[in-house]
Design goal:
With 190 residues, the protein is α+β, with helices and mostly antiparallel strands. The protein has helices at 5-57, 59-71, 84-101, 133-145; strands spanning 105-110, 115-117, 120-131, 151-159, 175-185.
Length: 190
């Protein structure tokens, strides 16, 4: 096919524009994609840096809160760390004092095996005693208000009198009481 000179110029100009567009596409598009990639990475890094700066800005407030928590001494709410026998002895001594001070009669006290619960160790003591209802209420109130914290579980109360028993005014019948008292110890400091 033969072209006249004007058509030939138009075709040459079209081929020139196509060649220029191809060179721009071959060089420009990858440069633009690379630039866009680095813009996104830079924006992500700046967002992360801003977030870290905000977090670092809260440091003084967090340090104040941490010191306030340390001042409250949360370790006092836990039984003594160390050997299980020492922790159980602390719980036993506290329960013994509560029973004796509030009019109960201690029958037995045993320290069953302790168990690990997450990062804490649960130490329990099985208690058997006799007491009237008022003394039992005082004993349980004392356990509830004790520091380090102690918890009552498996409470069983059995009456020791027949169903036809009529107490004299002002006198409460004795009951057999059995329960577990448990507390927690912190892990030993390493």
């Amino acid at each position: 096919m033969t072209l006249n000179p004007q058509q030939s110029r138009r075709t040459a100009l079209a081929l020139l524009f196509v060649a220029i567009a191809a060179v721009v596409a071959v060089v420009g598009v990858p440069a633009w994609l690379l630039h866009r990639h680095y813009d996104r990475v830079l924006e992500d890094q700046m967002t992360t840096l801003d977030r870290y700066r905000r977090i670092a800005g809260t440091r003084p407030e967090i340090a104040k809160r941490l010191q306030a928590m340390r001042d409250k001494d949360p370790r006092r709410f836990f039984l003594r760390s160390g050997a299980v026998a020492l922790s159980a002895a602390e719980a036993q001594e506290a329960v013994r004092q509560f029973v004796e001070a509030n009019g109960g009669k201690l029958i037995t006290m045993q320290a069953p095996v302790s168990r690990e619960e997450g990062r804490y160790r649960m130490v329990s003591v099985n208690v058997q005693l006799t007491a009237n209802i008022q003394a039992l209420r005082k004993i349980l109130d004392a356990v509830d208000a004790h520091t380090p914290f102690l918890f009552v579980d498996n409470l069983m109360i059995r009456s020791q009198v027949p169903g036809s028993f009529r107490p004299q005014p002002g006198q409460e019948p004795e009951m057999f009481v059995q329960f577990d008292v448990y507390g927690y110890t912190l892990p030993a400091q390493t």
